[in-house]
Amino acid sequence: MSAEYALHGTVAVITFNNPPVNGLGLATRTTAVDGIRRAQDDPDVTAIVITGAGKAFSGGADIREFNSPKALTEPTLHTLIRTAEESVKPVVAAIHSVCMGGGLELALGCHYRVALPGAQVALPEVKLGLLPGAGGTQRLPRVLGLEAALNMIVSGNPVLSEKLPALFDEVLAPNADLVASAVAFAERVAGVRPLPKVRDRQAGHPDANAFLAAARARVAAAAGPFPAPLECVETVAAAVTMPFEQGLAFERERFMHLIHTPESRALRHAFFAEREAAKIPGVPADTPRRPIERAAVIGAGTMGAGIAMALVNAGIPVTLLESSSQALDKGMTAIRAQYESAVGKGKLTPELLVQRMALVTGTLHYRDVATADIVIEAVFEDLAVKEAVFRQLDGVMKPGAILATNTSTLDVDRIAAATSRPQDVIGTHFFSPAHVMKLLEIVRGRATGSDVLATVLALAKKLKKTGVVSGVCDGFIGNRMIEQYVRQAGFLLEEGCTPSQVDGALERFGFAMGPFRMSDLAGNDIGWAIRKRRAAGQPGMTYSKVADRLCELGRFGQKSGGGWYDYRPGERTPHPSTEVDALILARAQELGIERRAIGDQEIVERLVYALVNEGARILEEGIALRASDIDMVYLTGYGFPLFRGGPMFHADTVGLRNVLAAIEGFAAGRHGEAWQAAPLLARLAAEGKSFNGG
Ligand code: NAI
């Protein structure tokens, strides 16, 4: 049952019951339309109340239907809204908690609206690259006026019901009984005729043309590559310039256009991908979790300090352990400096600074971390050091404590083997700065317990991060792929590019930062150390030696005043470097390479398809559970352009046959050894399939 029908005296109450948010899928729409018709046919009914059970009035359309014919199957959302609007008996929307998208559009089609305070009211379609397609752009301006409606529709952000007096006929007291109040209201208006309809009103603004011109300019500047925000402006404009029915038709047409744009597909993909990432086969949602009330962090360097802040920001007290008092002081000072800077920028109140600092305690002794529910190790990236830390933790931590490592490349199973409780060990790979970046790669070891995994996934959510589970391999999902991307960037330098050309091509593609600017920011010495470790352990993989030469010159990046670019003292703006250009030319000459002009397309394809090809291997090996998890890693941790939906989704959009053909072309060129097509990619391309299904 997705909606229930009940009589309260002479008032029919239709209650959506489609958890979690009363999405208006086909079954719910059908029952609601049947309910309104039944109430109209019942001579004893004088008015109708529509409300929602549980945690929402309605969260809106069921967006899973967007990719199926169901959204267009009668009764559509339009039909439901029209049925309410054309009812000959008054229809009252009784709103609480969440009233969004199609839910708000339905409420706007009702004759009256009654709400509890605190309800989140929004038309968030723009966040999925769409516009409200069931009359929202035509009705909301008729209720709130052009400006307030446009702000809500273009931002998609929720507004509290008590802040929208024009939208509601009554905003009740916080503890009022919503249904009883709505029924009483419905009884009062039962005799009103003609019934008030939003569609009959005018969308007001004292100077609509000037306002719309300014809005177009402002929105175009902020929208970047996304077409939806401007389309929102145009459809809202139609509420002023067109009669209602014509405006509705225009809205429908623009909605249908947007739904097929790659940008909207990408945003919808990311929306579902984020939800999917939290679902782990064999670890059901009701898997018991361990309580996390206290945490400890080992190592107060760049990552340890950031991880401590991430925990503290979520209200979890942290004990920070270091090997020396100097290092501890440095870490504590860094944390305080970050919070003080946030206060300086008005992002944090001085009281919150005091509260947050009170949640961090420093120590040099393992006995002080023993009672933590989770301990996260962030010491040097050195297996022997980490093994020693885990042996100590094994000795002191209370039974049941989760032992996590922030390693970015090392073998979590080997680290777990240093303890007598490998089931409690897990990788929590944060990204720098750890209190800001959304991604948390959760590395599941061979022995990691399901409850430990479920607990850390829940912790990611509590820290407002996107948790993505990875299996154990060198570099996990993100860094294993980025290595292939960086590798291609290096080869391109030898073959004819400059760092700024490569960065420019990737930034025009939509990356927040190209590979060389990124490396200068993170520190070129990090990759250098990894390459040296690899060369000692497992020689084999070819890569451009230009990056090593750069490091030999001490050009570690922004922190040393120069890397792939030159930086003026105290500045972060990259300037092309003649020293680096000379280095690249010398290396190309040494290798006997005749440098050639290389265009944006080749640059982008070589770097992005290197990600895709490695991603396909990671998927095939089961390191990632699904292609969309890889996309989430790249969208939330590596600045991959959101409007392209992640590397695997992008490959699907390009078509896997085209991707494979390009890879085969690169395999025939210089550095072809780096281009063996992943078997999964070759197979899916041959079958005409995609990574993300279908
Ligand atoms: P860092 O060098 O800034 O900090 C390491 C800290 O650990 C130092 O303060 C050091 O005094 C302390 N330490 C070393 N041995 C210790 C021990 N036995 N007991 C207690 N403290 C000890 O290094 P960073 O960058 O914070 O990296 C830490 C870990 O996080 C590494 O495993 C690294 O691979 C990983 N990581 C680093 C990222 C980055 O962007 N820097 C990103 C993601 C992971």
UniProtKB/TrEMBL annotation:
Residues 475-567, 603-689 form the 3-hydroxyacyl-CoA dehydrogenase C-terminal domain. The keyword Lipid metabolism applies. InterPro entries: 3-OHacyl-CoA_DH_NAD-bd, 3HC_DH_C, 6-PGluconate_DH-like_C_sf, ClpP/crotonase-like_dom_sf, Enoyl-CoA_hydra/iso, NAD(P)-bd_dom_sf. SUPFAM superfamilies: 6-phosphogluconate dehydrogenase C-terminal domain-like (SSF48179), ClpP/crotonase (SSF52096), NAD(P)-binding Rossmann-fold domains (SSF51735). Pathway: Lipid metabolism; fatty acid beta-oxidation. Keywords: Fatty acid metabolism, Isomerase, Lipid degradation, Lipid metabolism, Lyase, Multifunctional enzyme, NAD, Oxidoreductase, Peroxisome. GO terms for biological process: fatty acid beta-oxidation. It is found in: Peroxisome. GO terms for molecular function: (3S)-3-hydroxyacyl-CoA dehydrogenase (NAD+) activity; enoyl-CoA hydratase activity; isomerase activity; NAD+ binding. Residues 295-470 form the 3-hydroxyacyl-CoA dehydrogenase NAD binding domain. Its EC number is 1.1.1.35. It catalyses: a (3S)-3-hydroxyacyl-CoA + NAD(+) = a 3-oxoacyl-CoA + NADH + H(+). Pfam families: 3HCDH (PF00725), 3HCDH_N (PF02737), ECH_1 (PF00378). The keyword Oxidoreductase applies. Its main location: other. Gene3D superfamilies: 1.10.1040.50, 2-enoyl-CoA Hydratase, Chain A, domain 1, NAD(P)-binding Rossmann-like Domain. This is 3-hydroxyacyl-CoA dehydrogenase. The lineage of its organism: Bacteria, Pseudomonadati, Pseudomonadota, Betaproteobacteria, Burkholderiales.
